[in-house]
Amino acid sequence: MKTIRFGVIGCGLMGREFASASARWCHLTGIDVRPEIVAICDKNRAIYDWYTASFPAIRQVTDDYRALLANPEVEAVYVAVPHNLHQEIYCAAIEAGKHLMGEKPFGIDKPACDAIMAALKRHPAVLARCSSESPFFPAMQKICDLIEREAFGRIIEVNTGFLHSSDLDAGKPINWKRMIQFNGEYGVMGDLGMHACHVPFRAGWFPRNVRAILSDIVKERPDGKGNTVPCLTWDNATLFSEVTDPATGEPFPWTLKTQRISPGQRNNWYAEILGTRISVRWSSVQADVLEILEYMGGEQAWRQLQTGHETAFKTITGDIFQFGFSDSILQMWASFVHELAHGKPIKRFAGCVTPDEAFLSHRLFTAALESQKSQATVAL
Question: Cα–Cα 20 to 30 A to 230, which of 97, 157, 350, 378?
Answer without folding.
Answer: 378
